Amino acid sequence: MVKILVVDDEEILRMLIRDTLEDMGYEIDEAEDGQDALQKLARESYDVMLLDYMMPNLTGIEVIERLPQQIKEQLTIIMLTAKSQESDKQRVLDKGVDYFMSKPFSPMKLAELVEEALHAE
Fold first, then answer.
1. 114, 106 in Cβ contact below 8 A?
2. What is the pTM of this model?
3. What pLDDT, on the 0 to 100 scale, is given for residue 20?
4. DSSP letters of 43-91?
5. Is 30:19 a contact under the CB 8 Å cutoff?
6. Mind telling me which PROSITE patterns this protein's record contains (predicted)?
7. CA distance 96 to 10
8. Residue 53 maps to which CATH number?
9. Does residue 104 have a cis peptide bond before it, meaning omega lies within 30 degrees of 0?
10. Model confidence over 50-109: pLDDT tens digits?
11. Residue span of the structural domain in which 62 resides
């Protein structure tokens, strides 16, 4: 079963994403901030991480910078962000993000992107 880690400080958004992706048969785990995400990634293996750019404590970029290379290589990272300028997008892609989705987004569009990412591997 595909395991997805949803990392976002907004509980309502995590719940919406979880409900949508669980209905599609994915196993979902959640982290409320970057520190929580790093702890979970150190203990468990995930196929995909949906990662918010702007969070308290550690930003999405800081999470990626602190990930061991071995984890980065095994993980598809989809950055979720309200920052939609081309320079922001390029910055996160340069850090190792595989896909980029601007907020606000449709949960079904996100589900389609997850499907695309998983089939691209």
1. no
2. 0.93
3. 96
4. HS--SEEEEESS-SSS-HHHHHHHS-HHHHHH-EEEEEES--SHHHHHH
5. no
6. RESPONSE_REGULATORY
7. 23
8. 3.40.50.2300
9. yes
10. 999 999 889 999 999 999 999 988 999 999 988 666 776 777 777 889 998 988 889 899
11. 3-120
